[in-house]
Amino acid sequence: MIVNNILETIGRTPMLHIPLRRGEVGLYIKLEMFNPTGSMKDRMALSMVDSLPIALKEAAISIVESSSGNTASALAMISAVRRLQFTALMDSHASSDKIFTVRAFGSKVRVVGSGDGALATDQRDEEARRIAIEEGAYWTEQHNNPANAAGYMGLAAELLEDLGPRITHFVSAIGTGGSLCGTARQLRQHIPELQVIGVEPVGSIIFGGQGGCYRQSGTGTPEGANVGVVIDYDAIDSGRKVGDDNAFSICHYLARRHGLLVGGSTGGAIYEALSVALEAPVGSRIVTLACDSGTKYLDTIFNQDWLSSHDIHITDVEAEFAGLFADAPAHRSR
Ligand SMILES: Cc1ncc(COP(=O)(O)O)c(C=O)c1O
């Protein structure tokens, strides 16, 4: 494929099929890390920038967004191509790779938060609001911007084109809710009986419950932060919580067994997708998104020292879901 502009490479990502229960159930993982900045967020960032009023685009205004990293990387890439100024507000403990990615595209990073490892989502949003008011920047406000969810219309169309209307379950991570709700609403127009399952980390409060610390990046909402209007609870049949141990164990399993590097939010979603697959009727097609690439987390999820220092334990996924992997060797030592 020859393109005239890197933005044309957003979307049309491949899909990995993993047969489960000897082919009775199919798990389909949409590989969103094949987008140019390595995450599904390229889709929504382009949609948010395209939805800016023309007068603002022509005035070459600066934009600002608060992000755990992927939205910031995507907006930085798009700003480079579209000649916009962009400032990203990121957590003090965001990985240095994510901060350097934004800077590599020529955008600015302002680091927010105390550095104690807690997510600073509410502080980041406050700072974005302040910069918008005092410095005249345009805050894309991903948690409340309808163009976020609308950015996934193309993703839903690709899923329908590849799998047809026989998708039975859509299981995916939820943060702003754009990817889950935007995709689900489109799919439902063709598949009214689709089961939509949102997955957040244990410690996130989107589906209620006790707030607490979690290390799955980009996903969930910490206690104290606002749940934005992009989360459409009517589009979701069930909300589930997955802890870091289980989410990151899936990341290790996918890397070692399937050669696929995914981030922690994807690990959480796939853990839940496998739980659904245990009980799903024969012929079920379970779709999930690989939200981003594990290459963004080599120094954390895939670093034994980091795992040990955060008391995170990698478990044997093939043993836990033995009923699904009937063809796999019975037990693998790690
Ligand atoms: C790695 C990762 N997973 C999941 C999510 C959640 O996606 P959404 O905001 O569409 O709910 C994000 C959002 O930033 C993310 O970066």
* N- to C-terminal distance: 40 Å
How many independent structural domains?
2
What small molecules accompany the polymer chains?
A: pyridoxal-5'-phosphate
The CATH class designation of the largest domain is Alpha Beta
Q: What share of the residues does DSSP label as strand, in percent?
A: 15-25%
What CATH architecture of the largest domain do you see? Answer: 3-Layer(aba) Sandwich
Please outline the major beta sheet: 6 strands, mixed
Number of helices: 12
Give helix and strand order, one letter per element, not per position: EEHHEHEHEHEHHEHEEHHEHH
Whole-angstrom Rg: 19 Å
Query: Can you give the mean pLDDT?
Result: 93
Largest beta sheet: what is the strand line-up?
Answer: 1-2-10-7-8-9
Using DSSP, what is the number of strands?
10
Defining traits:
334 residues; alpha/beta; Rossmann fold; 2 domains; six-stranded mixed β-sheet; four-stranded parallel β-sheet; 10 strands; 37% helix; 16% strand; disordered C terminus; binds pyridoxal-5'-phosphate
Notes on the protein architecture:
The chain has about 325 residues and is an alpha/beta fold. The chain folds into 2 domains: about 5-40 and about 145-320, Rossmann fold (3-Layer(aba) Sandwich); about 50-145, Rossmann fold. The chain has helices at about 40-50, 55-60, 70-80, 95-105, 120-135, 145-150, 155-165, 180-190, 245-260, 265-280, 305-310, 315-320; strands at about 15-20, 25-30, 60-65, 85-90, 110, 140, 170-175, 195-200, 240, 285-290. Pyridoxal-5'-phosphate binds next to helix 3 and helix 8.
